[in-house]
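Collaborator request, handled under Task 6.
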Amino acid sequence: MSNADLVAFVRARLDEREAVARAARPTTADPTAGHWVAAHPRASPQDEPDPDLTVVGAQEPDGREWIVAEAGRGERSPAIAMFIADHDPDAVLRRVVADRVMLDAYADLAHLDVDGNSYDYPSGQAVGLGFAVRHLAALDAGHPDYQATWLPRFT
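Structure tokens returned to the collaborator:
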């Protein structure tokens, strides 16, 4: 498999993540459109939070809160809710943009990412970016199109 195949694989996974995040992203009319946070819900604004129940909520600029998902009751519930909140659609889209910048920089130099004795700056940049892009690909190692030869090289 070539470096072009590696680039195509990572680009396809980023496209998939973007599509899912955009589909999950609330519209401005949707009350869950605010920043997602982990919280203990209140039955009403006057009530105390329920310490046993953890939810992922969206907080609007005016302070109103809406439940996006219930993480449940139990010892792990706060951690689960925080994990979900940290992966809200906007956060995923920001990550996709950042990963694409790195991938595009690598795609321009991928032909220089070869085993050999090149010590020029572009080759070094290609090898360094290739190392990072291989790690991006490894995030999807369970995908049927992933190639074990893409594992990051340490030499």
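The cover message to the collaborator said: "Helices lie at 3-24, 77-86, 89-109, 121-138. The chain has two domains: 3-24+90-150, 35-87. Please let us know whether this matches your experimental observations."
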